[in-house]
Hints:
- With about 375 residues, this protein is an alpha/beta fold.
- The protein folds into 2 domains: about 1-270, Acetylglutamate kinase-like (Carbamate kinase); about 275-380, PUA domain (Archaeosine Trna-guanine Transglycosylase, Chain: A, domain 4, Roll), CATH 2.30.130.10.
- It contains 14 helices and 18 strands.
- A hairpin with an 8-residue loop joins strand 16 and strand 17.
- Helix 7 packs parallel to helix 9.
- The radius of gyration is 23 Å and the shape is elongated.
- The protein starts with a strand and ends with a strand.
- Mean pLDDT is about 90; it is low at about 215-220.
- Glutamic acid binds next to helix 3 and strand 7.
Amino acid sequence: MIEEKNNQDSTLKNFKRIVIKIGSALLVDRKTGLKTSWLNSLITDIALLKRQGHEVLIVSSGSIALGRAILGLKQGRLKLEESQAAASVGQISLASSYLEALAKHNLVGGQILLTLGDTQERRRYLNARATIETLLKLGAVPIINENDSVATSEIRYGDNDRLAARVATMTTSNLLVLLSDIDGLYSAPPNENPNAKFIPVVKTITSQIEAMAGDVGTELSSGGMVTKIEAGKIATSAGTAMVITSGKKMHPIAALANDEKATWFKPSENPISAKRKWIAGQLEVSGKLFLDEGAIKALHSGKSLLPAGINKVSGDFKRGDIVAIIATSDSNVGIEIARGIVAYDAQEACKIVGHKSTEILDILGHTGRSEMVHRDDLVLSK
Ligand code: GLU
């Protein structure tokens, strides 16, 4: 569904936590290397956002492009090991340029290099999320990229559009800004079709919207509109809005705040269902929790699953894994009644089942969640 007019949801100041993804073509010139004055203008905008009370995360591309400029590598396609070496050289230089730019505003940056597994596996995902949350709490600006120098082609994102969308959903950010050399979505690729119509707002990503994404990637960037629409699906289905705008001018974020031309993607109105879909969609469970009739009734009335309601635990699961919740009462013994994300490792779970949540500290020697499975992390089978 497409909306004709922009409205007030499409205003930067309405979003508290913002992920800004920067495409390689904006940051790096093939001949001259890093575009330092552009970077300084971007960071000036980000410093202002932070002073206004926003939380800002940066997902920056550019390591491979910058590394190849520094190393003077040939034009054209690089072999995997060449692009990994280029990423290694480029990333260290990119990170130090960010730090210099941030320091001018008395800001500190923290580098996080992620691989696909860090965002796919729930446990690693929770750990990465905790680090990023802590950086934000400490006032540092997380600067995130894919760990290109170790990720092999089979197990990498390859484009930072989708990586940025995963980072945005992982951190329950309110808005993902994709800054690239494309100013938004058109009804057809504008370089091929002069009648292409600009789309200011996308309410839902339908197959009609997907069909509009031709391939308008540039030599320096891996994504085109296709990966941007993919990013939009990831972000909006989890409740994060997204905006695509050109970052070619100086001060691109200030421009966006002043209603620069852009395509805004509305977040889904029912974001919790996205997480539940993720839970229900897992093929394998790592363990089982067995409950009696009373605890099952509590789940059906919308409560979380507390350790006290569990009779028995089986399996070798870790905190953050998906477990099946199984009935033990006579009427439905052995039936799976729900699935959920478990808040404790199997060993810890065994020790605290049947106990009140207030006893967790004494039993384990540390506090954890009061719930074994929080109701937001739970999907009932029927
Ligand atoms: N991670 C890649 C880099 O830093 C960029 C991927 C992309 O172009 O989206 O060079």
